[in-house]
Amino acid sequence: MTGVWFLDVPENRPIVDVVAQDPTVRVTRVGPYFGVESDGAIVIDRRSTGVRHAVWYSCVAGLSVSRITQWDKDALRVEAR
Amino acid sequence: MTDLTGRHLVRGVDHAAFPTFDPAGTVTFYRDVLGLPVVHSICAAGWGPEDHPDFIHFFFDIGNGDRIAFFYYFGLERPERLDRGDSFAQFGSDVPEYFVRSRHLALHVDSEEALLEYRRRLDASSWPVEMQLQHETIESIYTHDPNGYFFEITRALRPVTPQEDLDANLTIDALVDIVSRPGHTLDDLLARKAELIVERAGAWQEQQDAVRQNITQPSGVHA
């Protein structure tokens, strides 16, 4: 199981909206956080989100038994630890 | 008598003080270019120990009654400058630029118009804006003052939301929890923070909702 958390603020919404379209992920909610879960890797294409540099590189709030294996100008990739 | 135990009592910056070897340039930058009024100064003949030089301690208003202050010491020679740094601290070329710039003062403005007005003033001076950047939730302009101090003026792109205060607290609690581990990384912090989110974010939301409900549905006030 892969799990990554995002705080619900306007700047992060495009990121969550993009990942929510992936049929392999489930988006849950705990308080003001979106929890994104998947049985496999979670991959978010940066350009699809349209967010600026500072937002992209500060969007992750937490990692549940997962690790980031890519976080660059192209994509954020989270995999099971 | 009011019990002050545990209360948040401080009210902003009284003054933040810096040494200067260029008082004329400092006055030009802060008073004449930025338009910050001179609000206080002290002319002092030494201070305590015999080797303390005479000095001028002068203050500019940075809004809300807060002040930036400078010390000019008569006869004190500027330390030999290394590659980079300011009138207080010098750094060799081995020190990364992000570290040199990490200590800085940022003044707040309320609007984009105000930010751009300060940009206009700086761009017309000897200290033009070096960068204008939109960060996560703020937009800032940057330059270096005549003393080499890294100087920022910033505006909020939107008001801070309550959940950002929660998030900040979870981040800091996670940082304190992991910082004693040898070789700790951002990965350690994000793993610990996920645990704190699961533990605390749901209860925080319930508390927020209850407060909101009490505000919108006051009970027992109106018949």
Describe this entry's structure for a reader.
Chain A is α+β, with helices and mostly antiparallel strands and 81 residues long. Chain A has one domain: Monooxygenase component MmoB/DmpM (Phenol Hydroxylase P2 Protein, Alpha-Beta Complex), CATH 3.90.56.10. Helices cover 20% and strands 48% of the residues of chain A. Chain A contains three helices and seven strands; from the N terminus they run βαβββααβββ. Chain A is globular, with a radius of gyration of 11 Å. The N and C termini of chain A lie close together (9 Å). The mean pLDDT of chain A is 97. Chain B is α+β, with helices and mostly antiparallel strands and 223 residues long. In chain B, 34% of the residues lie in helices and 24% in strands. Chain B has a four-stranded mixed β-sheet with strand order 1-4-3-2, covered by helices on one side. A four-stranded mixed β-sheet of chain B has the order 7-10-9-8, with helices on one face. In chain B, helix 4 runs antiparallel to helix 5. Classes of the chains: A alpha+beta (81), B alpha+beta (223). Chains A and B meet through strand 1 and strand 5 of A and helix 4 and helix 5 of B.
Spatial arrangement of strands, main beta sheet of chain A: 2-3-1-5
Strand content of chain B: 15-25%
Quaternary structure classification: heterodimer
Q: Give the CATH class of chain A.
A: Alpha Beta
Q: How many whole angstroms does the radius of gyration of chain A measure?
A: 11 Å
* Broad CATH class of the largest domain in chain B: Alpha Beta
Q: How many distinct beta strands of chain B?
A: 10
Strand fraction band of chain A? Answer: over 45%
End-to-end gap of chain A: 9 Å
CATH architect. name of the largest domain in chain B: Roll
Integer average pLDDT of chain A: 97
The total domain count of chain A is 1
Order of secondary-structure elements of chain B: EHEEEEEHEHEEEHH
Return the structural class of chain A. Answer: alpha+beta
Q: What shape does the CA trace of chain A take?
A: globular
Largest interface: A-B, 24 and 28 residues
Instruction: Summarize the biggest pleated sheet of chain B.
Output: 4 strands, mixed
Number of separate helices of chain B: 5
Helicity range of the residues of chain B?
25-40%
Q: Helix proportion of residues of chain A, in percent?
A: 10-25%
